[in-house]
Amino acid sequence: MFSLEAVLLWGYCHLRIMSLLTTLPFVGEREEQPQEKQPPRKKHAKLFHRKTRTGCKRCRVRRVKCDETRPICNNCTRLDLDCDYAHSSAKRKGNENNSAQSPASLSCGECVINSDGVVQPQETTARRKLELELLYHYSTEVGPAHNADKFSQKFLGPFTCQAALQSDAVLYAVCMVAALHKAHISVNGSSRYMDHCLTYANLALQSHHQQVANLDPDNVDFSCLTSSLLRLYKYYQLQNRPLEPYAPPMEWLRMCNTSNIVFRKAWGFLEDKQETVSGRLMLEISQNLEEQGRMEHSNELMHLLRRQEPHELEEQWDDEVLKVYKRTLSCLGWLWKHRFDSDPPYGVSRRLFLFPMLVDTQFVAFIEEQRPRALIILAHYFALLAIIRQLWFVGDAGLREANAIAAAVPPAWLGMLIQPLEILKDPSLLCNIQPKA
Fold first, then answer.
1. pTM as predicted
2. Where is the signal peptide (predicted)?
3. Contacts of 243 (CB under 8 A, 6+ apart)
């Protein structure tokens, strides 16, 4: 019998031999080399579809670029579609607000979604005080400052303040304009009030979309008022936009032009209410639309249709183009006729605001293409806009734009700009508008 020591020694030797055999390669077998660890491949950044991420619902579904013109984008205008902008359907958490939202969107507290799908700040003491401050400022400073004529004073003064107590869209638009005016006159707090202005501009646009989508006799006045106040904001932006290199103010022009659709829809409800403030405004718009196609006031502008020089003959031209230019000049002819009157007729200021609303969408397209003839006609309008340069939201915007167009058009076309350039040299030649009954 083997001793215990011998058995343990044999077992130990057996284990050592087996361990050596498992670590040695077989004869003729290539020894396996350790593989170097490959660095992980970088993943491509996720690219979002920038064309349709924030556009209207129609453009997002069609996956086409939306210019985001409000209240109705250019694509929906061209195709005669209902235009609606999508909004977030979930309430944002406080941490998300702090990290993702801009200061403008936080100026009134955490945002929530109301029953109409409109994103708006929560009801807080700070928000109520801010809106009271802005409404008071509008009623005491902004409304009375609109002194182009007494009708405009009433339309943008007491009538608007009363409507703000009945319509969220009008209230937000009033707060937007009041905050804009405070930023305009402030020395130290301009950035804070501009944040408030942007906040209420977004709120006004959202509420305005809801009203336009559900237009009826009860909200038609509010829709017209909100549209007018939103256009006022766009006029103010013309004063500070960069002009070199020159690009036409398409956002302003599209917004003014598409608002015509809102007023056309509204006319069906106001045709029998011409004694109301909005009805009176709509009647004037309707009369201006009837003037299109008639050239009775446009004799002094007929040279803008000339086609004699080589550069004029090279321009893209057909009967439809001629028709568009004639209709545009018919919208401008009455204003141009009375530009130097010592006692100008009633309604000059409102016709100045109506011009970009009434021009054809084809003319807007010509401006976007920067056709020289279209830009020259637009320069005539901007030269006339200096008539109301005393209004704080207009200022020198018209003079700046007309000068920039004169510097941008090819030199061969400058002969058509002689008369606007004379106005730019001495704007005091233009008629002086005083409030009239």
1. 0.74
2. 1-29
3. 400, 401, 404
52-86 CATH: 4.10.240.10
Q: Collect all residues with Cβ–Cβ distance below 8 Å to 227 and sequence separation of at least 6.
A: 71, 208, 259, 262, 263
User: What are the b/e assignments for 149-172, b being 16+ CB within 10 Å?
Assistant: bebbbebbbebbbebbeebbbbbb
pLDDT, one tens digit per residue, over 122-173 is: 889 999 999 999 999 999 999 887 765 666 666 777 889 999 999 999 999 9
User: In which residue are the tokens 């009433």 written?
Assistant: 154
Helices (H) and strands (E) counted in the chain, each on its own, are 20, 2
DSSP reduced 3-state for 9: helix
In the DSSP assignment, the letter for residue 156 is T
List, in sequence order, the alpha helices (H) in 92-189: 94-100, 125-137, 143-145, 150-155, 158-164, 168-185
> Where are the chain's structural domains?
52-86, 100-238, 256-429
CA distances from 291 to 331, 344, 355 (A): 7, 19, 12
